[in-house]
Design brief:
By secondary structure, the chain is of the alpha+beta class. The chain is built from 10 helices and 21 strands. The protein is globular and about 85 Å long. The C terminus is likely disordered.
Length: 415
Amino acid sequence: MRAKREIVGALDLGSSSVALVIAEVSREDVTVLGTGIAPCEGLSNGRVISINDTAAAITAARVEAEHMSGCELSEVYVSFSGRDITGMNNRGLIYHRKCAQVSRGDLESAIENAIHVRLDEGVVLNVVPRQYILDRHEGIKDPVGMSGVQLEAEVHMTIADRAALDTIERCVLKASLKVRDFVVAPLASSLAVLREDERKMGVIMLDLGTGTSNIQIWQHGRLEWTGVIDMGTDLITTAISRSLRTPVSCAEDIRLRFGAACLADDDVNQPIPVACVGGRGPAQISRRMLVENIIQPTVVDWLTTIASRLQTVIDFNDMTAGIVLTGAAALLPGIELVSNGVFNLNTRLGAPESVGGINSRVEQNPMMSPAWGTVIYRSMLPSGDAVQPMTPRSAREMPGGGFGGLISRAINFLF
């Protein structure tokens, strides 16, 4: 019997562009059918600043992806970022009056109880199981079929601002699409670039985008922490613009053409033309001065800010697998060497791998990590008999899910 296949649209709202991937998903594989990318002036630091501009960019990306794939979308899974995205670890439990076998229904009920927490303005979006605890025995991955009285589900919940989600839905609706579900960009990027052994050993995923830095920490195969910092490659563009007194558009072009986090080639004295403002003629700067005096210090400050934040959360000595770096900054030559120095951890560059179908824009492109991770997220969602105890859940699609902001119907332990 042929596996059921589904056409999925995955829309990533970045700070400077939107990307749409149309893929065919089944239990066995995922195949890219089409992609669309469009610049967007309606987003800043992961937040919508213009509904019309954002909707226009979504429409442009949709037209391109649909033309390439020959498919027509009606709904999309949306990946997004922003400073309001946070993570929370929580436990939910259920009791049996006497010893009984754990069913899949028991497992799902324990997870549902874990996500029922009181939130003021936040909304629980994605739920990633961390472990199950049966009669105080921890570290269980699949309790179904085991016998016990008390089952606890320990989960990591990603939380976002309700108002931001409402605004995104309006943008998507204005582009003649509906939001099927949301995926926070840090989780999507982790699914796209992290390997199983890295998640077990302890790893920091850094998706350094144009306007935000998305972060997740994994250890022992469990998602430990999620966060977003309002810093991105725009910092570098701004530093170039201010230092050289050149328009932002010219500074961005200089960053893309000549930028590096540190110099690793012989062409250090290459002259770089710099457009000046106020009618003055063009100036020149050497690549050495550009990198060593402007870009490298900016990158070091950026990564140091992230490191300072993470040092309040984890011990870097526990991150045996080091750092996986993806996003726009991963395209900056030498950034892994700077990261090694700032964090004192080994860094590798991460990007989507083993992408089937029309993959030219997705394969090995770190800027497509959130969009590709959103497709992977959809492929992992439980459906019918395919429920897997450790796969992510959508709080939105669970009974009385995260959009309710309720208190647990059972006993919860918040930590």
